[in-house]
Design goal:
There is one protein chain. 47% of the residues lie in helices and 0% in strands. By secondary structure, the chain is an all-alpha fold. Among the domains are: 57-94, no CATH class; 99-133, no CATH class. It is extended, with a radius of gyration of 32 Å.
Length: 156
């Protein structure tokens, strides 16, 4: 009975070695799934050459995106209801008891939580270092090293 266990173990070991050899040989073979190289044009450059300069986002395109976020039904106009929808959503988040009115406690709940988190020594007051932790965390700019936007009035 013990002989069969040794033979089974040896067979499993040989199977594992065989699988390793097959995988190793496949690693060195070139893959047939690679796409073909793009064809070059007469000038030797790829057909879709990149532009010399990247176009900058203008205030108009940013404003058009902002308009699009408000124009929920995409009819080209922002109605009063569409304009106020974001405010209604923010109000509903604060109105935790759903009574349609904001108490001071509902309104100040974020400020209370922020103060409690910043007051790390629980002294009831914030030191300058503790106060510095309450600064609004801004998302990093997606402009990555771009110069500031130029305005027509000459300001930065």
């Amino acid at each position: 009975m013990a002989v069969w266990r040794y033979l089974a173990g040896g067979g499993a070991g040989l199977a594992a070695i065989g699988a390793g050899v097959v995988l190793w040989s496949m690693r060195e073979a070139p893959s047939a799934a690679l796409p073909p190289q793009p064809a070059a044009t007469a000038g030797g450059e790829a057909e879709a050459a990149l532009p010399d300069e990247v176009p900058e986002a203008t205030a108009q395109t940013r404003e058009a995106r902002r308009f699009g976020r408000y124009d929920k039904d995409r009819d080209g106009t922002v109605t009063r209801e569409e304009y106020l929808a974001a405010r209604r959503k923010a109000f509903a988040k604060l109105d935790t008891n759903g009574d349609g009115r904001l108490s001071f406690d509902e309104w100040a709940v974020k400020a209370e939580a922020k103060f409690a988190a910043a007051d790390s020594d629980h002294s009831g007051g914030m030191s300058p270092d503790e106060f510095a932790t309450t600064a609004v965390k801004r998302k990093p700019s997606s402009r990555h090293g771009c110069p500031p936007e130029r305005r027509e009035d000459g300001g930065a």
